[in-house]
């Protein structure tokens, strides 16, 4: 059942990619009132400094040992002095069709319709960890102090609430992170998505992730 | 060498993509056992015992096998719920599951099913043990309850037929639910497939058959030559065959899909600790041994209690190992 | 720096040894020295040193293979010869991080020439200033500088690329674009890059990269041309 759906979506994607309209139709396939916040990680600009990780930890008071955001460095590609690395952002993708929200038995995991941000309401959570297991991007963890699942929420309750950009975005020294409203065609992120070849992770699973990526030139992509 | 084995076992139970641990496997096993036993209880009482004229004085509760189901079904569901709640990161908030629902969530539907199951099972058992209950109420309860009790029982008895069908339906759903719970996880290709509910249904039924048989003939002294016992005994082989078929279908499907599914299947049964559990424990001990014993043991030896104990122990261990295997090996490979 | 990597050079003729030394040979290097905290007003009698040094070198190379030249003041493998001009101060001794290093079967002390080289055909240090390997911060690369590849080769002759990768992955992506001296300092007794806290390491990346032009293609960036 879910297999056939996966195959259907996969072949659908292949079709869309084949016609060279990879980004635009997929991005605007869903009509949602209000904003739909999305992020773009330009891997060709990322230097793997992990300043974003530090900023996230500091802003959102994430304890050591767990993280809402990780930059995964690939194995070196090539030999010294001509070796290079790829960097991959591992964090919540704020899916339009989030499996974590679908499986949550009490509705504690939710997708905010106003902003498209996927977040957790600790007051409804029982800690069954179904969402942690259900996230194909493996970005959820149990907060060691709150005992509830935690993950990136685009600084919804911290920076964003104060009208600031998410901590990772402002910390990036190379402007490799772009954050904005994907529903607004004039926003920087919409412009980037419309004009640059982006990709998203695990699209065939039908999650419709809202974390876009620009591939670097180092070749193979980590999964 | 010994440290190598130790490391490999360590790795089998501790890895990055592991979210749900052992208690969930135990929970799924007990839930399947309970559902299997409840299915058998209804079928035995409605069709098997009357057919063979085994119900003395119209009291099915006298039958050893029925008594076994009446212990296994409620006891294992209670234990499974305790284990489940214990496994929550905030066990004391479990009541939220009863207050808040999410109809897209398999687990939420499971919570509804479990509550319904508990009520229906309790009522059905009250009817089943009506005479025993009458005596208990009469001896221990205060007068007011004694007055209300017969009226309550009468009104419940009106729905006995409905309750039985309901119990059968819920038990079948619960048996499959254990599989759907894991099949919903898109993260893990080994779990995220439609065969899993079928496999868990059959293995739950298989554990039910084995559990009822084991407890029935040992504790409740069900006669091995009784027609009902014979029927249950004959049920073992087809159920185990169905379980084996579902298992074969699961891995055929994974290899057929290819990609990460194939990687997951190979990682699970193509080497390492869990592949040992699979081939030796699940296939060898849980499926082949009972089938062999059934097929090649002389008829007179099969009438011994020790034979039944051996056979059912193999089946039960196989099912328990299957739950652990699916849970752990399933979470090893991520899309 | 461990013995095994240094030992590789023990079989070479002394004259071709990569050399450890002192900056302060050119204007560019003097600027570097300022970073080290030296007082430029002190000045250095470079010419004197150079004469002595190169005399020593010639004597040394003529006697190729002999461990010591006759006059220790003229022996460039003897740091004292260089230090008679390139003095540093007590807080920043010229023989810093590598000062105590010993290598080879004779357990030889590291010398200035081990890193800075002895120049071409022994003429150097005085007339053709470009002949000595000068280690410069990337921001100081100019016409007088030793080319990046040559600077880094002096370090790489001992420090293997694989070891650098293990020590910190950032050695890899900067290998062709930054001089080692852009980050590392060997004349102080402790390299400021050593033992940095994780967050300080990150700050190093941020401080440098946030000054780069926004449209820079970091994967094709090269400092050797002086501009991206």
Structure description:
- The complex is a heterotrimer of chains A (223), B (335) and C (228).
- Chain A is α+β, with helices and mostly antiparallel strands.
- Chain A has helices spanning 2-18, 24-27, 51-60, 99-103, 130-134, 167-171, 188-195, and strands spanning 37-42, 70-73, 87-90, 109-111, 118-120, 141-142, 149-150, 177-181, 198-199, 211-214.
- Chain A has one domain (2-97, 151-214): Alpha-Beta Plaits, CATH 3.30.70.
- Chain A is 24% helix and 16% strand.
- In chain A, strands 8-1-10-9 form a four-stranded mixed β-sheet.
- The two termini of chain A are 24 Å apart.
- Mean pLDDT of chain A is 86; it is low at 11-32.
- Chain B is mainly α.
- In chain B, α2 (22-51) crosses α14 (305-332) and α12 packs antiparallel against α14 (305-332).
- Chain C is globular.
- Chain C has 228 residues and is mainly α.
- The relative contact order of chain C is 0.15.
- Chain C contains nine helices and two strands; from the N terminus they run ααααββααααα.
- Chains A and B meet through α4 and α5 of A and α4 and α5 of B.
Q: What tags apply to this protein structure?
A:
heterotrimer; B: 335 residues; mainly alpha; Formate dehydrogenase/DMSO reductase fold; globular; C: 228 residues; two-stranded antiparallel ribbon; 9 helices; 2 strands; 32% helix; disordered N terminus
The span between the termini of chain C is: 33 Å
Beta-strand content estimate of chain B: under 5%
Alpha-carbon distance between the two ends of chain B = 32 Å
Q: Summarize model confidence as the mean pLDDT of chain C.
A: 63
The main sheet of chain C orders its strands as 1-2
State the major sheet of chain C. Answer: 2 strands, antiparallel
Short structural summary:
Chain A has helices at 2-18, 24-27, 51-60, 99-103, 130-134, 167-171, 188-195, and strands spanning 37-42, 70-73, 87-90, 109-111, 118-120, 141-142, 149-150, 177-181, 198-199, 211-214. Chain A is α+β, with helices and mostly antiparallel strands and 223 residues long.
Layout of strands and helices, then pairs:
The complex is a heterotrimer of chains A (223), B (335) and C (228).
Chain A: H1 2-18, H2 24-27, E1 37-42, H3 51-60, E2 70-73, E3 87-90, H4 99-103, E4 109-111, E5 118-120, H5 130-134, E6 141-142, E7 149-150, H6 167-171, E8 177-181, H7 188-195, E9 198-199, E10 211-214
Parallel strand pairs in A: 1-10
Antiparallel strand pairs in A: 1-8, 2-3, 4-5, 6-7, 9-10
Chain B: H1 2-13, H2 22-51, H3 64-87, H4 96-99, H5 106-128, H6 130-140, H7 143-157, H8 160-183, H9 195-218, H10 227-257, H11 259-269, H12 273-296, H13 299-302, H14 305-332
Helix pairs in contact in B: 2-3, 2-8, 2-9, 2-14, 3-5, 3-9, 5-8, 8-9, 9-10, 9-14, 10-11, 10-12, 12-14
Chain C: H1 3-7, H2 27-36, H3 46-62, H4 79-83, E1 102-103, E2 108-109, H5 113-116, H6 148-156, H7 161-167, H8 171-174, H9 198-209
